[in-house]
Every structure is written in structure tokens, then in C-alpha cells.
Amino acid sequence: MATGTPHPQDLADRTVVVIGASSGIGLATARQVRRHGGRVVMAGRDPRRLERAAEEVGAERSVPLDAADTGRLREFFGALPGPVDHVVSTAGSPFYATLDDLDVDEARAHVGERLALTLGVAKYGGAVVRDAGTLVFVGGTGGRRPGIGTSVTAALTAALPALTSSLAVELAPVRVNLVAPGFVDTPLSASLLGDRLEERRERLRATLPIRRVVGPDDVAAVILHLMVNEAVTGATYDVDGGQQLVPP
Fold first, then answer.
1. Which positions of the chain have pLDDT values less than 50?
2. Which residues of 74-111 are buried (b: 16+ CB within 10 A; e: fewer)?
3. pLDDT in tens, 147-164
4. What Gene3D superfamilies would the database entry show (predicted)?
5. Which residue in 218, 176, 180 sits closest to 86, CA to CA?
6. What is the rounded CA–CA span in Å between residue 117 and residue 121?
């Protein structure tokens, strides 16, 4: 059992599976794992983008994967050549719609898919993780503050910490934790905001207590900490630069 203060160097010779690894937080996590001596298996939906990312990182293996496809997810974990030390899932996206514009069937599908994806990673990923290894999920803080158009995201924001705590008990001694970022400057954020991206960045730089925008590496650093700190399980770690502390 590890003792003392954990360091990312403790990932030397460890195998880490990263789902959603071709960009953003997942790619930043894969890079940091490799930087600290770990081996990485990278999975993502876009084969070309994943191939480029895996070559850049020096991944041990890369596998195109839509984690929302339960059958493919089961096959992916079943085909791994042996046990792994950590699994990180950054898969999932926010859902915004006012009630007037809401498609209820679309909302049902989004919520069901997000929960099923998390449960699938827990079921099939948890089965291949070594004792005291981790499952780390990435959620968000965006739904904690009530707002118009955020009902679906708010429901998932509340559900994921509770689900994480229950999974930590059921999968023990495998550890399960959740990282909840606020706004992170990623390609996904850029695609959602379009020409409003720079305005959002400037507002955050002016208002956040840290006086800068949170980036993928900030979130990845917390993910790595959760891998190596064997005293943490069932926890939700916010990484938002203090975004919840200031007016919207």
C-alpha cells in the first residue's frame, strides 16, 4: 500500500485507459500520464483524430470507440490484454434547452445514455481494474446554479456524485471518483460557444478568483492526483477556478 504524499511519478509502469482521449481533458490526461511514466490506452469516437493524438502521446494502443454503445464498450474492455491500473472516462456532453424548445424524447435519450455510459464503464471497466486502482469520471458543475435551459444538465449534475458514491462502495477496493469542472477552454467549449468564445474567456479572466481561464491540464492534474492518492474514493472534486463563488 502506498504511504506518504502521493506523486504523479507513482504512475511509472502503470496502465491507464482514457476514454474520450482524442482531445480536450482526455488528451491532456493521456499526455500527463505519459509524462509521468505511465502507459496509456486511448479510446475515442473519431478514428482519425484519435490516431493523431495517440501518435503524438505515444500510446500503447488506441481503439475507436463510441462509449455510448454498450456492446462495443463491453467488447473494448473484454479485449484488453490484461488488468489495468486506472480508467478515466471524459465521455459525455452537456444538454441545454428551454422547456419551450425541449424535445422530451431527446432529453430522455440524453439522460439515459449518460447514466448508462457511466454504469457501463463501471461494470465493464471496474472488472478489469486492479485492487486500489481507480475509475475516474468527468462530470461538471454547470447545473448547480439554477437557470433557464439547464434543467437536464442540472439533473445529471446532481445525479453523478450520488452515483459515484454508490459505485465506490459496490466496487471496493477499486476506487471511484468524479471530477466536476466548470468552464474549461477545450475544443468542445469552442464548438458550443462559437463566436462568443473570446467574450466568455475575457469575462472569466476578469471575474474568477484565479484570474485566468481553467484549461484541460488543470483538470488532468486533479485526475492524476486521484489515481495516486489511495485514500480518496467516492469523492467529487470541483475544478472551476472559483466559478461557483462569483455571480453568473
1. 1-5
2. eebbeebeeebbbbbbbbbebbbbeeeeeeeeeeeebb
3. 899 999 999 999 999 999
4. NAD(P)-binding Rossmann-like Domain (3.40.50.720)
5. 176
6. 6
